[in-house]
Amino acid sequence: MGERANLLRPPEAAFVSGTAVKVVDRAIDEHVLPKGFYVLDGGRRLTPGGCVMIAFYHAAADTFTPGLRKHIITRFENRLRHVEFEQCKALARQNWTLGERYWSIDLAPFIARTACGYERLREAEAAVSRDEMVMSGADVLRGTRVPVHDIAASAGAGEPIARIRDAYPLLTEHQIQLAFIYATAHPQRGRPRGTALPASTRLVERKRVPRKTAG
Fold it and tell me: Does 1.10.1660 match the CATH number of domain 10-122?
């Protein structure tokens, strides 16, 4: 996780809440999140309760107005302020319904979603290691020399998992999924390095053939 215990950087918070980084940043910039659910000093970090709020605010965009969504967040503010990720599963079984004359909401599914996202993130992080003596310190799947961001780039480009496994036959489908999760929550900084192909990959020469024109 990040340098601050139990706080997540925007890419991590985006994965946990099931949204995008720009959604997380907008929630901070547009003051959707109350003070105390994020910190700015030393880099943006979000609390578990902040992740729940973002998950709800984004998912309810087609149902409630921005003003009503902010009002609902305010109503749950005290209950979510000191929530820890490890508590989310148990908290999701509590009563989180809220309603007035013309609307009602149950926050429990968003707490459960956050708990599930956090567990998947932690599993992905546990599946990755970094050693300066292995692939120049790149993040690799534990016990291999396979860089996770190379696998994620292939999956993100739409490469079928079956073809990725053909290139990396020692990897399981689950490892490939974890690599994608890790790379999503921990994107590479700066200019990406060239992708290292497996030793068994054959280079096929391509030639450009001029198109014939009529006449």
Answer: yes
